[in-house]
Amino acid sequence: MGAFQSHDAHDHPTPDAFDLTLDVTVAEGALPPRYETSSASQFAIYAQETVQVEGSNWVPVRTGLSFAMPFMLILLVRGAGLEWEVQERVVDYDATGELVVLVRRPRSGHHLTRIVAGSRVGVGVVLPIARPAFALYQPRADEGEAV
Q1: Which residues are within 8 A (CB) of 129 and not within 5 positions of it... i.e. 6 or more apart?
Q2: Is 35 helix (H, G, I), strand (E, B) or coil?
Q3: What span, in angstroms and rounded, lies between the C-alpha atoms of 116 and 123?
Q4: pLDDT, tens digit, for every residue of 49-77?
Q5: Mind giving me the DSSP string for 59-102?
Q6: Which of 3, 49, 92, 142 has the CA that lies 20 to 30 A from 58?
């Protein structure tokens, strides 16, 4: 089995091919996340519904996916070089709701008007994190401003 699991009972067809098993709730009509190549470290995230994109305002795109991240891991959601910009987002281990990706037209003149259900709307990558304590200090009067 892999090094980490988000819960103990999984029957993955190729458990040694992965380092981690994530619990992902997939709503009816949603596409599950998918690695597009066998060696990819990031996975595709798809739009669950068609949305209109007008102007340069951020538009929410539902994915129908909810990720249960293990403690000390995050999911970074980012753009995939598509015809739209994606607002980067971090999904922490305490996130409980559906992943909604915010997109907008790029400022470079693309005339995107909609994102169709089933389109790759972004990519996700799972990363380990540190959660440090903070040692706070005040500068001494003779040391001047802290930089």
Answers
A1: 72, 73, 74
A2: coil
A3: 16
A4: 999 988 788 999 999 999 999 999 999 99
A5: EEEE--EEEEPPTTEEEEEE--SSSSEE--EEE-TT--S--EEE
A6: 92
Looking at the domain 24-128, which fold is it? Deoxyuridine 5'-Triphosphate Nucleotidohydrolase; Chain A (2.70.40)
Q: Is the pTM of this model over 0.85?
A: no
Where do the structural domains in the chain lie, given as residue ranges? 24-128
Residues of the chain where predicted confidence (pLDDT) is lower than 50: 1-2, 4, 8-10, 12, 15-16
What DSSP character marks residue 57? S
Query: Any idea which residue has 């996975």 for tokens?
Result: 43
